[in-house]
């Protein structure tokens, strides 16, 4: 077929021009096709390189993709909750019912506390509408694998009698082999976080979060999460302030839930440190007098004012009411600075040694294993 120039221009496609140029010479035609192919391929390589460079150097400084559906959205966690660790089975139902009827709307529970069924009875007796209540529970270490995790959250929801949880936490960044307390080296926190994400998608909990993580562990989860942690529950109080760590969570949009907010008041911590009970600490005694409040209220008020969610545990009506009133106490900037100086950087709760795991590695008062001691000698 022979085309004249006007016909070629009319049909501006490359193939038409090629045919026009080489219709009578097969070798010449092949050469031209090779040249065109190389030009197109080179252009493709240039475009791909520019695209990759753009992704690598520009996008990280832009707004991250909207994968953080769990961060800071929806119903907010109430500023104070009632703790239930070591609450006796025959006392916790009344404590929870009394707390809810007195104005609390937030309960901190966990499967490993072995009292969620009794806690649930307290919740039912209080008769608070479900959507006015915040209930947190936690995935125990032996339940990190998918099947165990599904059974575990179903049990917590059933025992608590709430239909769904508001927050489900990975209790520790440590997996045990199911059914025991031997560390499961094959299950990472990323594996477990994927399980947590699927639990969140199942609707059994509104939000998911973490507990007792080091900063590096938090960073790991933040870098891989599709559903991001809503909250991080960890030990923090005037004797273990970890202000930088608290500020870091504010910056990344993860709420801090302060456990053991009364420092060494929990009797189970007796003997863990040489510190005198905080409720007898002259600094806090004096500050409480100044504020016309109890010492416990004054300590809890500081936890509240620094922006952490506080979850004091008590099974006594007097303390339960007293602790709620902590929300009405305020400190001046100077008082907050004075309290900051009271930090002892001492941790009360550290089962890492028992488990042979270095917990809190980049935080104050991390786990010291025996082999660390050997190295130091
Ligand atoms: N995620 C975790 O790994 C983790 C770890 C630890 C704790 N937590 C959670 O955090 C909650 C609170 O921590 P915690 O139980 O260790 O310690 P806490 O709440 O700091 O202290 C509890 C102790 O303080 C006493 N108390 C409470 N209010 C008081 C007041 N106004 N005056 C004097 N004493 C008062 C309680 O007494 P009575 O009980 O005798 O009334 C109890 O002995 C736990 O219950 C649990 O829900 C979570």
From TrEMBL:
CDD domains: AKR_AKR1-5-like. Keywords: Membrane, NADP, Oxidoreductase, Transmembrane, Transmembrane helix. InterPro entries: AKR, NAD(P)_OxRdtase_dom_sf, NADP_OxRdtase_dom. The keyword Transmembrane helix applies. It holds the Pfam family Aldo_ket_red. Residues 79-341 form the NADP-dependent oxidoreductase domain. GO terms for molecular function: oxidoreductase activity, acting on the CH-OH group of donors, NAD or NADP as acceptor. The chain crosses the membrane at residues 35-59. Signal peptide: none annotated. PANTHER family: 2,5-DIKETO-D-GLUCONIC ACID REDUCTASE, NADP-DEPENDENT OXIDOREDUCTASE DOMAIN-CONTAINING PROTEIN. Belongs to the aldo/keto reductase family. This is NADP-dependent oxidoreductase domain-containing protein.
């Amino acid at each position: 077929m022979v085309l004249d120039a006007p016909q070629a221009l009319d049909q501006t496609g490359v193939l038409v021009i090629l045919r026009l140029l080489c219709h009578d010479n097969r070798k010449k035609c092949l050469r031209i096709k090779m040249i065109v192919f190389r030009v197109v391929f080179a252009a493709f390589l240039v475009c791909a390189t520019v695209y990759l460079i753009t992704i690598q150097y520009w996008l990280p400084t832009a707004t991250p993709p909207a994968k953080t559906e769990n961060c800071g959205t929806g119903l907010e966690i109430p500023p104070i909750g009632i703790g239930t660790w070591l609450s006796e089975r025959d006392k916790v139902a009344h404590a929870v019912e009394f707390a809810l009827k007195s104005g609390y709307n937030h309960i901190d529970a966990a499967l490993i506390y072995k009292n969620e069924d009794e806690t649930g009875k307290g919740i039912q007796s209080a008769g608070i509408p479900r959507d006015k209540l915040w209930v947190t529970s936690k995935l125990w270490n032996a339940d990190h694998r998918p099947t165990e995790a599904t059974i575990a959250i179903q049990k917590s929801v059933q025992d608590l009698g709430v239909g769904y949880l508001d927050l489900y936490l990975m209790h520790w960044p440590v997996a045990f082999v199911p059914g025991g307390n031997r560390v499961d080296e094959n299950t990472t926190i990323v594996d477990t976080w994927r399980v947590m994400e699927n639990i969140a998608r199942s609707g059994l909990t509104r939000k998911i979060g973490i507990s007792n993580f080091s900063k590096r562990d938090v960073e790991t989860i933040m870098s891989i999460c599709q559903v991001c942690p809503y909250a991080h529950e960890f030990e923090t109080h005037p004797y273990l302030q970890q202000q930088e760590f608290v500020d870091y969570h504010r910056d990344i949009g993860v709420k801090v839930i302060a456990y053991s907010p009364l420092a060494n008041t929990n009797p189970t911590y007796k003997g863990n440190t040489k510190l005198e009970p905080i409720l007898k600490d002259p600094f806090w005694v004096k500050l409480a007098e100044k504020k016309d409040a109890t010492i416990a209220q004054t300590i809890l008020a500081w936890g509240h004012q620094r922006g952490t969610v506080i979850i004091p545990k008590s099974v006594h009506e007097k303390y339960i009411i007293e602790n709620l009133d902590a929300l009405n106490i305020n400190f001046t900037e100077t008082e907050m600075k004075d309290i900051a100086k009271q930090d002892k950087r001492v941790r009360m709760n550290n089962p890492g040694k028992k488990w042979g795991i270095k917990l809190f590695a980049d935080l104050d008062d991390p786990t010291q294993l025996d082999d660390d001691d050997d190295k130091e000698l």
